[in-house]
Amino acid sequence: MNSRRPKPGHLQHGVTLVELMVALTVGLILLAGLIQLFISNKQAYRIQEGTVVVNENARYALSQMQYDLRMADHWGGVEADVLDTVSGSDTVTKDCGGNAAAVLNAGVFGYEDAGTSPLTCIPASDYLPNTDIIVLRYAMPTRVASGSLAGTTFYVRSASGRRGVLLEGKNKSSIPSDLASDNASETDPYKETPIGIANYQLRTAIYYLRKCASQDRGTAGVCDGADDTVPSLARLSLQGTSMVAEDVISGVEQMQLAYGVDLNGDRSADAFQTATEVTAANNWSRVVSVKMSLVLRNGERDTTFTDTTTYQLYGGAAGASKTYTPATDDRQFRRKVYNSTTQIRNMTRG
Fold first, then answer.
1. pLDDT band for position 41 (cuts 50, 70, 90)
2. Half-sphere exposure of 163 toward its Cβ, with a 13 Å CA cutoff?
3. pTM for this prediction
4. Distance from C-alpha of 75 to C-alpha of 198, rounded to nearest angstrom
5. Spatial strand order in the sheet of 271-273
6. Which residue(s) pair with 238 in the sheet?
7. Average pLDDT over residues 161-183
8. How confident is the model at residue 233 (pLDDT cuts 50, 70, 90)?
9. Domain containing 260: what range?
10. Domains: count for the chain
């Protein structure tokens, strides 16, 4: 056994400066790689999560519009052309007027995409250019007793199979005698007499695309430079005596519609037309279904991706498709097209 101890000059007391610098450099390289991996994984997760949100948003947007489409032109068992209007109603605040009026006996009307808002009730600062607008009206399915009519709410009062009226609740005393109730204070809607007469609240909804998701950062109630630039599905909804703007869902950057028109009276669509074509042929009373294309985009930018796709959507002239290419500044968003066809059941009744 060698019991000799090393000479004092050969003892190891630590690491040299060069070794320390090499170790630090290697450690920094490894740490930088881990940080980059973490950032990449986090970004990938956020994009994937955004895709799930897009699918959920699309389902919600379609369900909202499809419900109103299916109910459109329901007037409590009568046809739209036998609905009169009881005089003396209040003026509806922010009413769009014309074919988009809040109180009107027409179930469906549409406006073709334009460079600026075609309706005075939707400011140009809000309207997302080159997107369609649809107006839907109907009598809501729940009956309202005569004794429960709210004074500043609009209703459809109908005698099933005969005729009906549009009225504001405060004017129920002016209802024509053949539609009057034997007991105007009745609070049970199923005890109305004569039998077959019922009240339904009027529903009017105008769906459109807005330039921003939130209108709270700048001037309240409009999209301006202080707000975000997230395109969103919105609607104007009749509430009392006012058309109220409501958010539906964010991330919808394109909406195109095609209207199925029954040309031969067999209650099925024979041709799909744009809103402009339907208006020109005066065919709105013949619209029995609507094809809808929504383009929704991810809320997260993907810096590794550029979307140069030209999307094919419903809504072209003479039943053709319509093309849509994302704007240059928005091509780092991933997006998806959602198509649906909805029958307007009350337009196919016979």
1. low
2. 12
3. 0.87
4. 10
5. 271-273, 252-261, 287-301, 333-343
6. 243
7. 92
8. very high
9. 47-347
10. 1
